[in-house]
Automatic annotation (TrEMBL):
Belongs to the UDPGP type 1 family. Keywords: Nucleotidyltransferase, Transferase. InterPro entries: Nucleotide-diphossugar_trans (IPR029044), UDPGP_fam (IPR002618), UDPGP_trans (IPR016267). This is UTP--glucose-1-phosphate uridylyltransferase. The keyword Flavoprotein does not apply. CDD domains: UGPase_euk.
């Protein structure tokens, strides 16, 4: 990858300063821009790494029946990443406002989790949502109904994600798009957590309030809640950074995995965008690379402050270079580069950073309508602490659901029905169908309707079979 343009960063700085972007975010973007223009490789090839083996299991470090230590809770903030719109599923508002189970949205469930934590422990655990420019207004409006719980005021709950300029792929200058100037900007990935929390003043504010530990996770992962055993372990260990990983299954083979860099023994995270095409088979080998990042992280805020100060205010995160067009709906529009960083990649920025293996019950994300269909099923339950978790009887293995193209958008799930997936291994669905009220899927089942007229799947048990309607 060789670009080697001698373009000045000044136009980017001017553009970002005029838009009110923080100095922390500008410096972070400048570093990433320099990597792009230098032509430095951002790939992590298979020969340079070795697999991570035998991570400490959550059961090994947590005591049975363990409860939260009040002093530790006082020093903890829960941060939820809430910047996504879910446009791939046809949504035009914050993804966290999507109804996920029993009439509750992601955001409603998160509020219940925080409320349960506060009520059951008596500790006013601090809570922040990292909103984007696209999700802030809708999210804060929805939170208005929870004013009596202290979870509605913008100044109390919002950490704002930054925007960064898209880069003209021909000139390496800020792209200009007069038809829609908002498309000149893009999100910088969830690695923006670090410049956002520093540049907004929240890092200093939290430290001044005696908050030392941050638990960070995605708003669409309802299995990710504060855990007393992990919090105690993290505090006692003195580790600067801890990642929750879990064992990969076939449904996770495209997700970023943990590895050890051979040159210095440092643990790192490799995303698919950083994998050379020739190594994709190894990347997707879930037996070789056994652990993937759940994007649930524990961060020692004092260590983060020290590292930022030592690095001139910028964590040296690996850069992900995305080739796009300025108007994503028009492939003929100007080619651009969008630079992203991954939050979990900070594991290689801290000496002594580590990871633990958590059960699948702490990982229940929704990226597609297939995920949503699965999460709404009886293979998941709502726990008393507000999590939506995989049933214990499934032993950490979620059912795999594959929906054909006509089910890509959320609206297409309305009226589809909810078959029992408690004992399902895999369900493949193709064509316009509807499930009757008492359908149970067991083992591996495929159901196909090759016609255009909607057909019903009759009541009954379907086990290890192919059904043609």
């Amino acid at each position: 990858m060789q670009y080697l343009f001698m373009s000045s960063f000044t136009p980017f700085r001017n553009k970002m300063e005029q838009a009110g972007v923080s100095e922390a975010a500008i410096k972070s973007f400048e570093r990433n821009y320099q990597i792009l223009t230098d032509g430095s490789s951002t790939d992590i090839d298979e020969e340079s790494i070795e697999p991570v083996k035998n991570l400490t299991e959550l059961e090994e470090l947590s005591k049975e029946g363990e409860v939260f230590e009040p002093e530790l809770l006082k020093q903890t903030v829960v941060i939820k990443l809430n910047g996504g719109l879910g446009t791939s599923m046809g949504l035009q508002k914050a993804k966290s406002l999507l109804e996920v189970k029993d009439g509750a949205t992601f955001l409603d469930v998160i509020v219940e989790q925080i409320s349960y934590l506060r009520e059951s422990t008596g500790a006013q655990v601090k809570f922040l949502l990292m909103n984007s420019f696209s999700t802030s207004e809708d999210t804060l409006e929805h939170l208005g109904q929870y004013a009596d719980r202290g979870l509605a005021a913008k100044e109390d709950v919002e950490l704002h994600q930054n925007q960064i300029p898209k880069i003209n792929a021909e000139t390496m200058d800020p792209v200009e798009f007069s038809d829609n100037p908002s498309l000149e900007w893009c999100p910088p990935g969830h690695g923006d957590l670090y410049p956002a929390i520093a540049g907004s003043g929240w890092l200093d504010k939290l430290l001044a309030d005696g908050v030392k530990y941050a638990f960070v996770s995605n708003s669409d992962n309802l299995g990710a809640v504060l855990h007393p055993g992990i919090l105690r372990y993290f505090a006692e260990s003195g580790k600067p950074f801890l990642m929750e990983a879990t064992r990969r299954t076939e449904s996770d083979k495209k997700g970023g995995h943990l590895a050890i860099r051979k040159s210095d023994g440092q643990m790192l995270l490799r995303e698919v965008a950083q994998c050379p095409d020739a190594d994709l088979i190894d990347f997707q080998n879930v037996e070789k690379h056994q652990y993937f990042n759940t994007n649930s992280l524990w961060i020692n805020l004092e260590a983060l402050k020290e590292e930022l100060d030592a690095q001139g205010g910028v964590l040296p995160l690996p850069v992900i270079i995305n080739k796009k067009t300025v108007d994503p709906r028009n492939k003929a529009s100007q080619a651009v580069f969008q630079l992203e960083t991954a939050m979990g990649a900070a594991i290689e920025c801290f000496k002594g950073a580590d990871a633990i293996c958590v059960p699948r019950s702490r990982f229940a994300p929704v990226k597609t309508t297939s995920d949503l269909f699965t999460l709404r099923s009886d293979a998941y339950e709502t726990t008393k602490d507000g999590r939506i978790a995989l049933l214990n009887e499934r032993q950490g293995k979620p059912p795999v659901v594959e929906l054909s193209g006509e089910y890509k958008l959320v609206d297409s799930l309305e009226g589809l029905g909810e078959p029992s997936l408690k004992r399902a291994e895999k369900l493949s669905l193709s064509g316009p169908v509807r499930f009757a009220d008492a359908v149970e899927i067991r083992g591996v089942v495929s159901i196909a309707n090759g016609g255009s007229e909607t057909k019903w799947v009759a009541n009954g048990v379907y086990e290890d079979e192919e059904v043609s309607l």
